[in-house]
Amino acid sequence: MKKFTILSAMTTTMIMAVHPVGDAGHALDGTHEADVPAIPTVVTSFGDALQKGKFTAKTRTFYMKRTFDDGGPDTTALTFGGIFKYESGNYNGLKFGLAYYGSHSLFGIFDRYEGANPHGGTSLLERNTGEDLAFLGEAYLQYDMSNTMVKVGRQQLATPLMQNHDLRLLPSVYEAAIIRNKDIQDTMIEIGYVKRYTGFTSKDNRFLDQNTKWGKDGLAYISFSNKSIENLALHGQYIKAIADTANDGSPIAIDDYKYLDFTYNLPFGTKTYIKGQYGGNAYASADDSTLLGAKIGTTVYDMVDVAVLYDKISGNEFKAVESG
């Protein structure tokens, strides 16, 4: 059996210099040096959109040591980095964003076997090599009109089965095209197409074609959330591989991914709720998987959370896209 232990993990997040490019009244640490009149938000040209863009920096320092109870070699890494991003102002509904993603080893506190360890590393540095992570993580064009948003390019996703998994120093990022609509009250519907991504916590250090897992033409999905019924929240997603073969013609293992969950806040007790979930995968040449789960919980004396849950996976292994 394999296991790992995190001996120490320190995460410090800072947002710095979050202000329009032309605002000279801010110091580089984001503090005001003097009172400055509010800058008008009206953008009349592309030049104005550039000037009224924002620079942000989200930085972290992360230390992790991973050990295994079967005698495998330990992996260790201390890294610093984060996301340094520029997003333009909105011009006639259009804006764009660019972001550098980096995770850099500090003070030589790094085991070279971190990258090549067959058991797995810390996911703080590049898979297989253990090199620093450094790449253009976001590069997108976004268009907003009324209740509809279109976004194309390198971006983070936040759907039930495709997430950014921000669990280490960097999140996962995808090359995708999405359309999100909120015309229906208390409802969000999103459709998307995804072809490449950076791996779990971006440890691939670049955007890789996932044709051996997702098929040669990528994945298409529809996702939704709904809160139109009082005290009830619904979320769901269906993802389909557009082609059932990889670039070399070999079949892929999983044809689709599906998921649905609900949360209902019960009208008694303190924060009392019931949750349920269903999921599944259609395997090309094996039994399909089915996930069923239920949970009921409450808070006692406003201090202790108590819950009873049931979870079962049958037929085959249930996989989200991130682990698929």
Task: Describe the structure in your own words.
The structure is a single chain. The protein is mainly beta and 324 residues long. It has a domain at 92-99 and 135-323: Porin (Beta Barrel). Helix content is 4%, strand content 46%. The protein is built from 3 helices and 14 strands. Strands 1, 2, 3, 4, 5, 6, 7, 8, 9, 10, 11, 12, 13 and 14 form a 14-stranded antiparallel beta sheet that branches. A hairpin with an 8-residue loop joins strand 1 and strand 2 (75-87). It starts with 45 loop residues before the first helix and ends in a 10-residue tail after the last strand. Residues 4-40 have low confidence and may be disordered.
Provide a concise account of the structure shown.
By secondary structure, the chain is mainly beta. Helices cover 4% and strands 46% of the residues. It has a domain at 92-99 and 135-323: Porin.
How many strands, which pairing sense, and closed or not: the largest β-sheet? 14 strands, antiparallel
Tally of separate helices: 3
Say how many strands there are: 14
Radius of gyration from the CA trace? 22 Å
Mean pLDDT: 85
Shape: globular
Structural class: mainly beta
Uncertain segments are 4-40
The SSE string, one letter per element, is HEEEHEEEEEHEEEEEE
CATH homologous superfamily grouping of the domain at 92-99 and 135-323: Porin
Helix content: under 10%
Name the beta content range: over 45%
CATH class of the domain at 92-99 and 135-323: Mainly Beta
CATH A-level architecture of the domain at 92-99 and 135-323? Beta Barrel
Would you give the CATH topology of the domain at 92-99 and 135-323?
A: Porin
Q: How far apart are the first and last residues' alpha carbons, in Å?
A: 22 Å
